[in-house]
Every structure is written in C-alpha cells, then in structure tokens.
C-alpha cells in the first residue's frame, strides 16, 4: 500500500472540493474493494476522502413513485429494507446473493456500482493487464479465464463486472444520480458502466470529480414475477460464473414485458432489449424462452476456459424465465 | 471401572483459550521493539535476477534494511544444511541464496521496517530486472518425460506380484481408466509466520508456525551454523496446517536472518497470496488397468501414477500402494513416476497420496462394479483383503466390513436402485455413491515427561504440536486416565524445543506415538506413587501388589475393595516434599513388525445434481470409521467431519490453476481458490465402529487425522455418476464438466 | 508506477472505543482496523486470515454489526463501539456463544473462531436467519478450513433459539 493523506468530508460539496484539490484523490466509503486493491498496489491513490459521514444514508420515495437509495446506504440495509423487499424483491435477492453478511454491512450502494473486476491478472501486479496498466497487454485472453467475459469483449480486455446488485439494477432500469464540480446529472443505468474497447482502464462513465449521491428505482418493481439466479463455483461467497436477473410482467400466460440482465459474462451487466422484446405479447413457454436465450448469446465468444459459459448462460436464462413465470421456489 | 477419561467426549482443554482470543499463534507474540519483514516475490518462473534496486525502499524513513541475494551474509551453503526432517531427496530451496529464479513467487527480498505498513510499502518499491528463461510448468506437456526417481521419499512401489499383464489380458472384464487430480494448496486459515526474538546474549527465541518445533530448531541451527541450544522454538497454537507446517517455510529463514543481522526482533507473516508460493498437493495423473472375472472378482490391477515434483527435489507420496492394501488380487503391478516442473516442491497435504490415489482407485472400482453388474458394497466384500499384500503382512485389526454394514444401514443403501439417473426430484438428479479407504496407523519414537507435584497436580509434556487435532486434550485425557486424576489437575505442554522430543505432528501418528509416550511416562509415575502409598503410615496397601490396585478419583485403591485406599496427595507426602518426575522414550513394540496397522473407512454419499445447470449439492454423507479405540469421541468426530468437508473441496472445488504462459498459479487467493464454505455443507454423520487392537500401540488407538478425507471425494464422484450417468475423471467436478 | 515515492503522511491521533474502553493511538492513515487491533493494541484475538475480505477471520462487531476489520481504516471507525472477541466475556464468564463453541466443538485449530463467534453474534443481531439454509448462507463469510461447519451451525441454532426466548 502506498502512503496517502486522509480527510473526512461533511457534505457532498466539501467532498468534491476535497477530491478535486488533491492529486490522485479518491472517495472512500465501505472500502471493501478500494482497500483490497490498495493493499496490493493495484490502486494507488495519494489522498482519500472519507465520505461516510455525509447524509446520503436514507431510502425514500422518489418523484416517479419509486424508491431513491442513498449512495451510502449499506448493501445489507438496502436488501433488508421493508420497501425494497416488498416492491423490488429482485434487487433484494441479487444483493443477498453477493458477498457475505460482513461485507454487505460495510459495502455501500454507490460503492457497489464502482466495484472493479476480480480478474486474476488485474489482481496480480506481476502480470500484464491493460485495465491495470494500459498498454501492458491482456494476460487473460490466452491465459486462465474461467471467470471472464464472453460478451462485449475486446482484444484489450475480457474482464467482467463482478456485481450482483448491478445486474438487478440493470434489469430494473435504475438511474444513477451524480454530482460533480459542474453540477448534478442523471446517468441511466445502461450508460453507467462501459465496455472495455480500447480503454479498459475506464470502468464507468463517472467523472473523476463526480460522486454518486443516490440510485433511483423506477416505480415498476416486477415484484410478482422475478428471479435472480447466480451460478458459481461454490454455494456462497463466490463471484458469479453466470448470473441472471429475470423480471416479467404477465397478463395471464402472456408476457407483457420482460427484462433480462446477465452478470458474470461481460464488462457490464448485459442487456439486450431487442431480445427481451421478442417475448412481448408471447406466451410464456420454454420454447419462447429458448429463443430469447439464443438471441442473448448471439455473438458470444469463449476464450478457452470460459467456453462453457455460453451454454450455461443460455440454460440459466431459460431456467430463470421459467422460475420468474411460475414463481416456484428456486432450489 | 478404569478408563474414566479415555473414551469420554470431553470438551477441548484449550477451548477457553481459543474462544476468548487468549490462544496465541506464531505472529501474535508482540515483543518489545519488534520490527516487521515483508517478502518480495519473484514475478517470473525461471531465470535470473539481472539487478535488484533497493534504494527507493531504503530511502523510506522507517525501512531498516532490505535483504537480497546480494547482501545476504554467507553462512553455509551445503544442501544438507537446508534439509529438514520432511525434505524429499534433492537440493532444497535456499532463500536469497543466488540470483537464480527456480519458481514463480520465489522470495527474492525481505524488506524490514519499523511497522508492518512501512515494510509492505518498502516491498512495493524494490525494483527487479529479470533475465527470463524458458520454463516447464505444463504438466500435461511433460508427462511423457516422467522419470523414476533415484530415491523415493515415500514407500517405493512394491515389486509386481503374479502376472499382471497376462491376467489382465485374460480377464473377462477389463477396464482402463485415466484420472487426474489437480494441484491443491493447503491454505490453513493462519498464514505462515515467524517471530524471531533477538535475545541479549545473541540467542534466539523463535515463535513459528510449524508442525514440530524440533524441525525448525534443527533447520535454523544448520542453516545459520548455530548450536541448537542457542535457538529455542515455541509454537503453542497452530492455526491449521494440514501438512504445510511439516517443513519450515521460508519466512522462518528470513525472520531469523533479519534478526541476526539487525540484532532486532523480527516478525514475518506471509500474505495469503504468498501461501501459494510453496508446497502443495502435486498434480497427479493415474492410469489404471483392472481385470476381473464375470462376477467381479479381481484378477489384475495395474496402477501407474505420474506426479508433479519440482526440478530440485523429488517429492513422492504413497499414491499407488492402496490397491495392495484395499483389494485382494494376486496379480498386481504398481508404479510411480515423477514429472519435474519449474514449481516449488510439492508437500504432504492431508492424507498425502491417499487422497489422490484412493480417489482414482475407488472411482475405477466403481466403474468396474457397474461393468460387472455388482453392487459397489458387494463388489468390495467380494474382493476384501485380509492382509497388506504389498508387505505380505496381516492387518493388526480391520473392521472395515463392519464399516460397510453400519454405514450402509445408516444411509439406507439397501434402497438404492443401481440404475444411473433413476432418481429425480424436480430439476435435480439424485445419486448415491460409496467408496472405502484406508490410512496408515503408524507409531513413531517419541518422548514425554511427567511431573507430579506435591499438591497432586500433574504436568506432562512433549514437543509435539496441536494443529487443531486435539493433541492438548487427548494427551491430558491419557495422562489423567493413567493416574486417576481429574482433568483439571492435569496440564499438557507442547510446542517448545525445551520439552522432550517428539516426531513431526502429521501422518495421523501423534496419538499413537506421543500418546504412548505420555502413557509410559505416567505409568512410571504410577509405579512410584504405588511404592510411596505403601510407605504411608498404616497403609492399607502395604501388602498389595501393583497389579491389584487402581488409580481413580485421585486415589490409589484395591480393585477388590475400594475402601482400602490411599490418596495420591498422601502418597506424595512420603516423597519429602519433592515432585515425582519421570521422562521416557517410547518406541513401537517389536511385535508390530509382523503386522500392518491401518485405519479404515467406508463412506456413503448422496448428491443432487441440477440436470440443466450442472450444480452439485452434497446433501448427505455418512462415514463409518474403524480407527481402533477412540480416545475422545468429540474431537475424533470433529476430525472426521473436517475430513468430509475436505472431501467436498477435493471433489468439487479445489484446484490451483497454472497459467503456463506465465508459469504461475493464477488463482492465488481465497477469492479465486475455492475451499468449502458453510453453505456447501449439509447433513454429515460419523460412525465409529468398535475395533479392538492390542498390536498397534499400548493404547489401542489409531490416529484419525487423515482417514476422514480419503474415501469422501471418490464417493461423491461415484454418486455424481449414479445421478447423471456421467463419469468425470478430472477433479474438481465443476459444473461445466456436467453440462 | 511513479518514481518519486511520496513523503510519508504524518501520523494522526485516532480515538477508538474498543470493548468499552477509550483507546488513543497515533496512526498513519494506512493502518487498517485489523492491524491497529493486532499490532498497535496487542488485541491479537482478532485474526488475519487473508487481509482481503476473503475469509472472515477478522470479523469484529461495530455498533453491533459484523464487519471485516481488514477492509476498513482505523481512522474510519472513530466514535463507534467496537467489540472484539476479547470483549465478549464478562467478569470471567464466557458469552453464551463462546461457551456454545466449546460445548459443540465448533472449532479445531481455533484460528477462525474469534471471527466465527463475532459473526454468530452479528447474525443473531441481524435477525434474518430463519431456516437452516439461511444460517449456512449467512455464516458463509467465515471460512473454517478445519471444516467445523456442522458444529458451527448448531451453535447458531442454539443462539437463535436463545434470542427468541429472550
């Protein structure tokens, strides 16, 4: 870990001025990923601005009849919030599928969006990695890539975004409210995270001086038909090989609206609205679900160790949609 | 009756220390004026350090020194000076010895600073330029270059018996398989750590994570040219080891080096990532060719292992000896070859060889049982071996048949439909599988001392270790039992080179070896006490013979008439206010030579496999164990439960994955190297079958540290076959292999 | 990587409230709560098993909630009530969860145990574990390499029953 200076911010504006007035400064909240990476010199900020005392810790109704999640609400408090459990059980389940009781108590909602990839090579400073050190090369493409991406990859990076929460937020079409030195703006969830392209070192479209203040959930929560399915290498405390957030709005056996987001397969939660639209007005049958699964994985590419994810993702989509439709308890 | 302590499900005597945080592990001895060392690891797998620039690290205020091969003092260089009690044949790794890089993550520098954070920071500032050489880390690519070592560390493969090739060719049923077990890392929860305390007179007290303090002491004395008397090694608590603490690891050398050079006390704890930089269970491919008659009676077994080792030491373990122990078969040929790679030397890891070999053997036998159309338990009964055919010796005891019977009954095995894919529940295919296993029940030489003080308190000691196995507790029980004292009057000391010698704590031999020494030392105290009791004024035991008395409840009394008794404290008064002190060296009795002592297990498993998604849940495990006399059913059960959890890890999760482009294990942390978590574990049941054995050692007890694991992984893999009809021959069985 | 290593930041005064006692330390910002406990306060009951939030051995309670002390800075935990394993027994009497760990032999080597114990207490405080599978999942943040999970689950069941009858 490199040395750094440290300050505590009282409010959003002082946090922003603090972070802009220091070289290589970062906000710290839960710290669960930032300190993890600082200890191995993957991230080397010279100044940390502790934002945990800022009043962004409430969950409230927003203007559109949904919920506004304060950026500093813990993942645990979000997942167990009465309104979240009732109106957005997909989100609640997704959060609880991630990390552990301890980590969820520490990690914040804003911080969850800013998690960095868990790629083996990103975490090992003795290996080339374009995300960590632009231009050094990608070790994963021809190396060990079991956990890595099959969609939206580039020749520079095949990292995945590790979050479960974000997969649900993508399906729910949340909005991210941010404040920077130039004022406030709203980033639709689909635009928040980026694909690696030739700039894999940039994970999101958040600017250096910007701070996430809250996340807006739209009124529609798909509380009647949803599933969050996470497939991983052990039953708990592991990142997803493939995860699926599936949400359906049904009219009897006919799908009115479908939302589907995949985790563990790309540099961001993966959505394909045109494939979701294939279900609109269609009966909820296995055959239809299979078509959507095929469409979702169109263009997917394996890199050896992770080839299996293509088939696994298809099967997971079908199963998730079936479960969301029937709302049976998952096993 | 006798045996009031032995056989009792006593709670751990060190339990309170462990649940309050008072138990101190190696890195927790924060002596005054302590400094911290942080290890710099090599980025490459093979080559040379062209240059190493430590100036930036040294410029940091608070960094005291950076040790590298360039400034390391000479000391001694001979291989023999670096060999420890668990070294395989070869040339041991010598830290900071030369510019040559022999494996990825090799320690190449130690930064010592006033605080941990400064040392870690300093380590990040050390700049290294390498000359990279070509390296071999690809096991598959080198398997055909496998060689027979000049000398085996393990038991050399026995000579072939009968005519294995011909018998195989003539057999009605033939099966040839190839099974692969990956590299695995021990990953005890406590990282390896040493605190080298610089004493005023130049002597060292070292707190080390080790499975035998004598080994660390000898290693330091040899490598630094010191007298053993100048080095005291202490290790009261070990946060798990599973074999990783059998050899002194490099942090010990580095801490001692720094302490001697700086004349300061130094703490070095490896990082979790660095826990992947030394010994591990070797990747092993096994080829089996087994022939049987129509009815499943075995006619030929050929079992060949190809196992990873380093380029500098020939590590081997007993992978292929198990057919000769577990199955009666007159035609057998066994071989074990090594695949030399640019990795650190493999190291014994919980049931070394057994875990690997019994997995391949038991899965192959399951395949053969299917081919013969014989129930797997029936198949094993049909081929039951009454002796260790490798040594041609009868077993000292073997209640494996009873394990089958009780295990099968508890599990409900008789309801099994042998047809694969015959049980289903929703999306889940249900499978039932079984396997059996064995492990050696060896006794080694060991010493122990017993001191009974005038107030009736007994202190027994031996320089062994308790790595979670329950040594503190069972030794206390054995001692208390022998002298008829309440547990709270007995203290057992271990983990200190000032105590009587003990073998390394491993191989499931501690209860047998140290337990026998403890008993022998206490037996001597007993004899003395009896004589003293006879000297008590008007002693009711005056005319009694030693054989006629018993020691219970702090009293020595006539077996026939408990009212004729002398209290131990009264007897002690005859000793002139002195303690009774007895030290013994115990060794196996000669009669053991004629027998093969083993523990045995039969394990039954239920799995649920999601038909579409390939996820496996181990819903039930029943293991029946024949392990001689169980000293403490509570800690013994925990040992077996732990073995089952390891079995789940072996079968489904654990694999250190080598990136052959970099020559490096890439999943080197606990996020990416998966060990079982609580949610992976469901119903587990342990049965101890009664087994009498008066040959194995004076206690009749066998060690249980390893028998719990060996049969679990194959039973799981066999259950997965029964569930799915898919035979996965490469561990771990991750979901992709079942899609 | 930058060439000129930055100057070391000055130490700051950090006030921590641990096991009911006020502790004042002079620390550089880079000291984790875990290292502050183990190396600066000699409270070595809290264990370091990975230093990266991948094992749970460092679990402590902060305002009654379980967290990984390795992934937070000591400076960020001022004005909070920190409880470590050393603070659980009262007047020599073990906390019921500590006693239950002994009774059920819910450990072997003991290294993960303090973290497991704090985690059980935190889990009970959370009040979300209803089923056996909930317990197993919510205790999965504490790895036990010795494999004492079956017995740990028994401790949790007992602790939950105790909290219900209270």
TrEMBL record, chain A:
<feature type="domain" description="FAD-binding PCMH-type">
    <location>
        <begin position="1"/>
        <end position="222"/>
    </location>
</feature>
<dbReference type="InterPro" id="IPR051312">
    <property type="entry name" value="Diverse_Substr_Oxidored"/>
</dbReference>
<dbReference type="InterPro" id="IPR016167">
    <property type="entry name" value="FAD-bd_PCMH_sub1"/>
</dbReference>
<keyword id="KW-0274">FAD</keyword>
<keyword id="KW-0285">Flavoprotein</keyword>
<dbReference type="InterPro" id="IPR002346">
    <property type="entry name" value="Mopterin_DH_FAD-bd"/>
</dbReference>
<dbReference type="InterPro" id="IPR016169">
    <property type="entry name" value="FAD-bd_PCMH_sub2"/>
</dbReference>
<dbReference type="Pfam" id="PF00941">
    <property type="entry name" value="FAD_binding_5"/>
</dbReference>
<dbReference type="InterPro" id="IPR036318">
    <property type="entry name" value="FAD-bd_PCMH-like_sf"/>
</dbReference>
<dbReference type="InterPro" id="IPR005107">
    <property type="entry name" value="CO_DH_flav_C"/>
</dbReference>
<dbReference type="InterPro" id="IPR016166">
    <property type="entry name" value="FAD-bd_PCMH"/>
</dbReference>
<dbReference type="InterPro" id="IPR036683">
    <property type="entry name" value="CO_DH_flav_C_dom_sf"/>
</dbReference>
<dbReference type="Pfam" id="PF03450">
    <property type="entry name" value="CO_deh_flav_C"/>
</dbReference>
<protein>
    <submittedName>
        <fullName>Xanthine dehydrogenase family protein subunit M</fullName>
    </submittedName>
</protein>
From TrEMBL, chain B:
<dbReference type="InterPro" id="IPR016208">
    <property type="entry name" value="Ald_Oxase/xanthine_DH-like"/>
</dbReference>
<protein>
    <submittedName>
        <fullName>Xanthine dehydrogenase family protein molybdopterin-binding subunit</fullName>
    </submittedName>
</protein>
<dbReference type="Pfam" id="PF02738">
    <property type="entry name" value="MoCoBD_1"/>
</dbReference>
<dbReference type="InterPro" id="IPR008274">
    <property type="entry name" value="AldOxase/xan_DH_MoCoBD1"/>
</dbReference>
<feature type="domain" description="Aldehyde oxidase/xanthine dehydrogenase a/b hammerhead">
    <location>
        <begin position="20"/>
        <end position="134"/>
    </location>
</feature>
<dbReference type="InterPro" id="IPR036856">
    <property type="entry name" value="Ald_Oxase/Xan_DH_a/b_sf"/>
</dbReference>
<dbReference type="InterPro" id="IPR037165">
    <property type="entry name" value="AldOxase/xan_DH_Mopterin-bd_sf"/>
</dbReference>
<dbReference type="Pfam" id="PF01315">
    <property type="entry name" value="Ald_Xan_dh_C"/>
</dbReference>
<dbReference type="InterPro" id="IPR046867">
    <property type="entry name" value="AldOxase/xan_DH_MoCoBD2"/>
</dbReference>
<dbReference type="Pfam" id="PF20256">
    <property type="entry name" value="MoCoBD_2"/>
</dbReference>
<dbReference type="InterPro" id="IPR000674">
    <property type="entry name" value="Ald_Oxase/Xan_DH_a/b"/>
</dbReference>
UniProtKB/TrEMBL annotation, chain C:
<keyword id="KW-0479">Metal-binding</keyword>
<dbReference type="Pfam" id="PF00111">
    <property type="entry name" value="Fer2"/>
</dbReference>
<feature type="domain" description="2Fe-2S ferredoxin-type">
    <location>
        <begin position="12"/>
        <end position="88"/>
    </location>
</feature>
<dbReference type="Pfam" id="PF01799">
    <property type="entry name" value="Fer2_2"/>
</dbReference>
<dbReference type="InterPro" id="IPR006058">
    <property type="entry name" value="2Fe2S_fd_BS"/>
</dbReference>
<keyword id="KW-0408">Iron</keyword>
<keyword id="KW-0560">Oxidoreductase</keyword>
<dbReference type="InterPro" id="IPR052914">
    <property type="entry name" value="Aldehyde_Oxdr_Iron-Sulfur"/>
</dbReference>
<dbReference type="InterPro" id="IPR012675">
    <property type="entry name" value="Beta-grasp_dom_sf"/>
</dbReference>
<dbReference type="InterPro" id="IPR036010">
    <property type="entry name" value="2Fe-2S_ferredoxin-like_sf"/>
</dbReference>
<dbReference type="InterPro" id="IPR002888">
    <property type="entry name" value="2Fe-2S-bd"/>
</dbReference>
<dbReference type="InterPro" id="IPR001041">
    <property type="entry name" value="2Fe-2S_ferredoxin-type"/>
</dbReference>
<protein>
    <submittedName>
        <fullName>(2Fe-2S)-binding protein</fullName>
    </submittedName>
</protein>
<dbReference type="InterPro" id="IPR036884">
    <property type="entry name" value="2Fe-2S-bd_dom_sf"/>
</dbReference>
């Amino acid at each position: 870990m490199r040395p750094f200076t440290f300050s505590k911010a009282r409010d959003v504006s002082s946090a922003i001025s603090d972070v802009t007035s220091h070289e290589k400064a970062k906000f710290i909240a839960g710290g669960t990923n930032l300190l993890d990476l600082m200890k191995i010199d993957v991230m080397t900020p010279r100044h940390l601005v502790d934002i945990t005392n800022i009043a962004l810790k409430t969950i409230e109704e927003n203007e559109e009849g949904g919920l506004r999640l304060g950026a500093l609400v813990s993942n645990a408090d979000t997942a167990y919030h009465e309104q979240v459990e009732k109106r957005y059980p997909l989100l609640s389940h997704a959060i609880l599928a991630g990390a552990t009781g301890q980590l969820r108590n520490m990690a914040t909602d804003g911080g969850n969006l800013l998690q960095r990839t868990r790629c083996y090579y990103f975490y090992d400073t003795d290996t080339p990695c374009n995300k960590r050190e632009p231009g050094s090369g990608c070790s994963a493409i021809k190396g060990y890539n079991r956990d890595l991406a099959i969609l939206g990859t580039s020749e520079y990076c095949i990292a995945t975004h590790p979050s479960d929460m974000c997969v649900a937020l993508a399906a729910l079409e949340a909005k991210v409210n941010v404040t920077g030195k130039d004022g406030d703006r709203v980033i639709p969830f689909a635009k928040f995270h980026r694909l690696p392209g030739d700039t894999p070192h940039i994970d999101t479209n958040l600017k250096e001086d910007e701070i996430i203040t809250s996340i807006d959930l739209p009124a529609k929560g798909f509380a009647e038909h949803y599933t969050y399915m996470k497939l991983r290498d052990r039953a708990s405390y592991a990142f997803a090989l493939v995860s699926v957030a599936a949400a359906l709005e049904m009219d009897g056996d006919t799908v009115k609206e479908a939302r589907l987001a995949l985790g563990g397969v790309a540099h961001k939660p993966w959505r394909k609205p045109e494939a979701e639209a294939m279900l609109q007005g269609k009966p909820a049958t296995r055959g239809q679900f299979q078509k959507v699964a095929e469409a979702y994985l169109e263009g997917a590419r394996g890199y050896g160790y992770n080839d299996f994810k293509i088939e696994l993702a298809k099967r997971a989509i079908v199963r998730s949609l079936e479960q969301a439709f029937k709302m049976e308890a998952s096993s | 009756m006798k045996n009031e302590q032995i056989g009792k499900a006593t709670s751990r005597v060190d339990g309170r220390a462990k649940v309050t945080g008072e138990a101190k592990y190696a890195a927790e001895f924060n002596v005054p004026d302590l400094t911290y060392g942080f290890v710099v690891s090599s980025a490459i797998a093979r080559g040379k350090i062209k240059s190493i620039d430590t100036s930036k690290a040294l410029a940091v205020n608070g960094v005291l020194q950076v040790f590298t091969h360039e400034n390391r003092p000479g000391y001694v260089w001979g291989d023999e000076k670096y060999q420890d009690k668990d070294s395989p044949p070869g040339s041991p790794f010598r830290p900071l010895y030369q510019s040559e890089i022999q494996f990825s993550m090799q320690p190449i520098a130690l930064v010592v600073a006033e605080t941990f954070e400064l040392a870690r920071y300093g380590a990040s500032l050390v700049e290294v330029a390498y000359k990279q050489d070509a390296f071999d880390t690809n096991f598959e690519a080198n398997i055909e270059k496998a060689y027979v070592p000049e000398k085996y560390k393990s038991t050399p493969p026995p000579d072939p018996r009968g005519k294995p090739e011909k018998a195989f060719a003539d057999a009605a049923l033939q099966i040839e398989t190839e099974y692969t077990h990956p590299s695995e890392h021990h990953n005890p929860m406590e990282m390896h750590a040493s605190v080298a305390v610089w004493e005023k007179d130049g002597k060292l007290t070292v707190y080390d994570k080790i499975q035998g303090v004598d080994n660390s002491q000898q290693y330091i004395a040899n490598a630094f040219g010191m007298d053993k008397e100048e080095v005291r090694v202490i290790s009261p608590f070990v946060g798990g080891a599973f074999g990783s603490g059998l050899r002194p690891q490099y942090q010990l050398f580095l801490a001692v080096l720094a302490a001697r050079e700086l004349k300061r006390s130094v703490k070095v704890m490896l990082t979790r990532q660095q826990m992947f930089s030394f010994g591990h269970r070797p990747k092993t491919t096994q080829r089996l060719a087994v022939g049987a008659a129509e009815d499943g009676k075995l006619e030929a077994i050929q079992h060949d292992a190809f196992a990873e080792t380093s380029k500098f030491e020939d590590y081997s373990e007993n992978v292929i000896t198990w057919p000769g122990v577990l199955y009666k078969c007159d035609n057998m040929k066994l071989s074990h070859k090594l695949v030399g790679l640019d990795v650190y030397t493999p190291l014994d890891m919980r049931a070394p060889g057994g875990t690997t070999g019994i997995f391949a053997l038991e899965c192959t036998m399951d395949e053969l049982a299917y081919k013969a159309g014989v129930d797997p338990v029936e198949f094993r009964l049909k081929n039951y071996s009454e002796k260790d055919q490798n040594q041609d010796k009868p077993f000292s005891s073997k209640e494996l048949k009873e394990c089958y019977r009780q295990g099968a009954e508890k599990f409900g095995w008789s309801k099994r439909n042998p047809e694969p894919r015959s049980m289903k529940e929703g999306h889940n295919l249900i499978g039932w599988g079984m396997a059996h296993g064995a492990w050696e029940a060896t006794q080694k030489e060991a010493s122990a001392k017993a001191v009974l003080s005038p107030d009736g308190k007994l202190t027994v000691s031996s320089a062994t270790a308790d790595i979670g196995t329950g040594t503190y507790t069972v030794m206390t029980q054995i001692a208390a039992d022998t002298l008829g004292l309440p547990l709270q009057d007995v203290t057992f000391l271990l983990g200190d080179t000032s105590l009587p010698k003990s073998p390394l704590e491993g191989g499931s031999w501690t209860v047998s070896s140290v337990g026998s020494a403890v008993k022998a030392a206490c037996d001597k105290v007993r004899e003395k006490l009896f004589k003293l009791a006879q000297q008590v004024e008007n002693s009711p035991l005056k005319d009694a013979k030693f054989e006629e008395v018993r020691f219970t409840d702090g009293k020595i009394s006539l077996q026939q008439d408990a009212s004729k008794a002398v209290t131990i404290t009264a007897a002690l008064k005859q000793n002139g206010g002195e303690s009774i002190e007895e030290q013994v060296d115990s060794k196996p009795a000669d009669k053991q030579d004629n027998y093969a002592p083993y523990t045995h297990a039969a394990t039954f498993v239920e799995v649920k496999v999601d038909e579409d998604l390939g996820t496996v849940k181990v819903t039930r495990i029943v293991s029946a164990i024949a392990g001689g006399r169980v000293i403490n059913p509570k800690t013994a059960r925990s040992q077996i439960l732990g073995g089952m959890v390891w079995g789940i890890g072996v079968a489904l999760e654990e694999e250190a994955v080598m990136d052959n482009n970099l020559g490096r294990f890439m999943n080197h942390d606990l996020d990416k190297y998966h060990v079982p978590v609580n949610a992976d574990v469901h119903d587990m049941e342990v049965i101890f079958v009664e087994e009498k054995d008066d040959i194995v050692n004076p206690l009749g007890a066998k060690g249980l540290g390893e028998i719990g694991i060996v049969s679990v992984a194959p039973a799981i893999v066999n259950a997965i076959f029964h569930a799915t009809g898919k035979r996965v021959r490469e561990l771990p069985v991750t979901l992709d292999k079942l899609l | 990587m930058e060439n000129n290593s930055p100057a070391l930041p000055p130490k700051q005064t950090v006030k921590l409230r641990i096991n009911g006692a006020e502790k004042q330390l002079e620390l550089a910002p880079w000291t984790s709560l875990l290292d502050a406990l183990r190396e600066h306060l000699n409270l070595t009951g809290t264990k370091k098993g990975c230093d990266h939030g991948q094992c749970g051995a460092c679990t402590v309670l902060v305002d009654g909630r379980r967290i990984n002390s390795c992934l937070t800075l000591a400076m960020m935990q001022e004005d909070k009530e920190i409880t470590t394993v050393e603070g659980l027994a009262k007047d020599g009497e073990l906390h019921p969860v500590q006693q239950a760990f002994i009774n059920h032999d819910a450990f072997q080597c003991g290294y993960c145990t303090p973290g497991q114990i704090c985690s059980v207490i935190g889990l009970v405080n959370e009040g979300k574990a209803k089923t056996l599978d909930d317990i197993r999942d919510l205790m999965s943040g504490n790895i036990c390499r010795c494999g004492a999970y079956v017995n740990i689950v028994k401790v949790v069941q007992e602790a939950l029953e105790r909290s219900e009858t209270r």
